[in-house]
TrEMBL record:
Its main location: other. Belongs to the bacterial solute-binding protein 1 family. Pfam families: SBP_bac_8. It comes from Paenibacillus solanacearum. It is found in: Cell envelope. This is Extracellular solute-binding protein. One of its GO terms (cellular component) is cell envelope. Keywords: Signal, Transport. It comes from the Bacteria. InterPro entries: Bact_solute-bd_prot1, SBP.
Length: 444
């Protein structure tokens, strides 16, 4: 009986996905869904099959959320459209894969890590393949495409396509708000309003200190300004400025709430997810997609739009995308592009949005309307908050970004703990970053 039900549910889901994909392909925006494009439902018949040879492709993947859904996202859809293509997942660190001599045909990574692939000589411009396969780049969010293109010299090449976007939102514990008798957070709050709301739900009861609001780390507060600690044009620190000062002062307001100051400077930029999902003492948590953790948590939660700065209305962050590209060294680039074509297809993107909670980089509103439809734990949640905020194009990342960010976190922590004022902290960060860059350039 269970097998029949599962099969029947799968058939229903496939039918729903096919109908919606047909609507996406046709460009419709109402509730009706036409047949999938190219299905022959309108008398066109099947297109002649391409004569192809069997090929096995190596796909280097660094993303665990793709790895855990490998069959559904890639293997099964490829088998359906391009049965001659077999793919093998290659895992590990990039330098290890390079050293092993393994032939890579395509790679899946975070857009912010693309610089490593550029330096390794792995990247290839996919636009000629898009043209050959008649793929319309207008299907994708132009801000995301702009960000990926910005990783190439002079923004002249496109080294891959996005398949998943990160988002920023404000999660909140309904039980804490109920206990305090305070209305829940709402969309459209400024940071000033969010901090004041956090003050109202910062209290101690029965020996438990409840915390008003926290964010993952100071970079989350800097993102709406597109701030980066190093200017790639000059290889110099870019922290000692008025925008970073605003960010530092906002973070100080957050940590000044009752009970919110951590025990030491190192804890300031430590991820507070467990305080929200496990300890259940955090009233509001400003963060990215935490659905995988919330799925197994019994916290009574919902979410609202991420707070924003008054002069940056509805700007939540910068683009944080996961992408797939063709390896320049591949001997099977046309087939590698077919993997990209399938991964970014309407059908796979709709499945990922409905069943996995991926925010799609495709612009069709149906993908937002269907978001989380198959995830039971998301039913009844205010999921439209995910889409309320816009993202800025991500600024170019310096090769010294990781080292600079470490310094930024360390000194920001000292500032929060009262060891220096904002001006001193910002000046010290710039000095230490510039010193570190000089050492790295000198090979120290």
């Amino acid at each position: 009986m269970r097998t029949w039900v599962q099969a029947n549910n799968k058939l229903h889901r496939l039918a729903a996905v096919s109908a919606i994909c047909g609507c996406i392909a046709a460009g419709c925006s109402n509730g009706s869904a036409g047949p999938p494009a190219g299905s022959g439902a309108e008398g066109g018949g099947k297109q002649p099959e391409e004569s192809v040879k069997p090929v096995t492709l190596n796909i280097f993947n660094t993303r665990p959320e793709v790895s855990s859904n490998w069959e559904q996202l890639l293997v099964e859809p490829l088998k359906k459209k391009y049965p001659h293509i077999t793919i093998q997942e290659v895992k590990g660190k990039l330098n290890e894969v390079i050293a092993s001599g393994t032939a890579i045909d395509a790679y899946i990574t975070a857009e912010v890590d693309l610089g490593d692939y550029i330096q390794a000589g792995y990247t290839d411009n996919i636009e000629p393949y898009m043209q050959a396969h008649k793929m319309d780049s207008n299907r994708f969010d132009p801000v995301v495409i702009q960000t990926i293109r910005g990783r190439s010299a002079g923004s002249k090449e496109l080294f891959g396509l996005p398949f998943y976007l990160q988002f920023t939102a404000l999660y909140y514990n309904k039980d804490i708000f109920n206990a305090a008798g305070v209305p829940y957070p709402k969309d459209g709050m400024t940071w000033e309003e969010a901090v004041e709301l956090g003050r109202k739900v910062s209290f101690s009861r029965d020996g438990v200190q409840y915390l008003g609001i926290r964010t993952d780390q100071v970079g989350r507060l800097a993102a709406p300004f597109g701030l980066m600690p190093v200017d790639t044009a000059t290889d110099r620190a870019s922290v000692n400025n008025e925008q970073f000062k605003r960010v530092f002062e906002l973070s100080q307001q957050i940590f000044a709430l009752p009970g919110n100051r951590p025990a030491n400077a190192k804890e300031v930029n430590t991820n507070p997810t467990n305080k929200f999902t496990k300890d259940k003492v955090l009233a509001m948590y400003h963060s990215v997609n935490r659905f995988s953790t919330l799925k197994s948590s019994d916290v009574n939660w919902d979410l609202a739009q991420a707070p924003f700065y008054p002069d940056r209305p509805n700007i939540g962050s910068v683009v944080d995308a996961f992408m797939i590209g063709i390896a320049k060294t591949s001997a099977h680039k046309s087939d590698a592009f077919k993997v990209i074509e399938v991964f970014t297809s309407d059908e796979v993107q709709l499945y990922a949005a409905r069943a996995l909670g991926y925010v799609s980089p495709l612009v069709h509103p149906k993908l937002q309307e269907q978001y989380g439809a198959e995830l039971g734990f998301l039913q009844g949640k205010h999921l439209q908050a995910v889409f309320k905020s816009k993202n800025l194009p991500n600024a170019p990342l310096s090769v010294y970004h990781t080292a600079a960010q470490t310094i930024l976190f360390e000194e920001h922590g000292k500032y929060i703990m009262g060891q220096m004022d904002a001006n001193t902290a910002l000046r010290t960060i710039d000095e230490k970053i510039n010193q570190k860059i000089a050492e790295l350039k000198a090979g120290k």
